[in-house]
Design a protein that fits this description.
single chain; mainly alpha; elongated
Length: about 80
Amino acid sequence: MAKDKTVPKKGPHRMATASKPETNEEAIHSEFEAELNAFATKVHGVIQEARNKMTDEEVEKADREAKTILESSTSTPKPSQHSA
């Protein structure tokens, strides 16, 4: 009766596989992602350093300009971009 309740220890449903080797495409993607993250971190540091050297008025002006740029670059279609 105890044998009926136990799950067999061998078979494909119990096989544990080692980590699958990374494909060339995945390796390229992860390398690109690491480079992109490093670049973003570097850019962020440069921006913060520049902001620390600005006066309060310059920071406000830069924030307004950045907000304008970000709003204009959104993917929301403008009335002239609507298709018929």
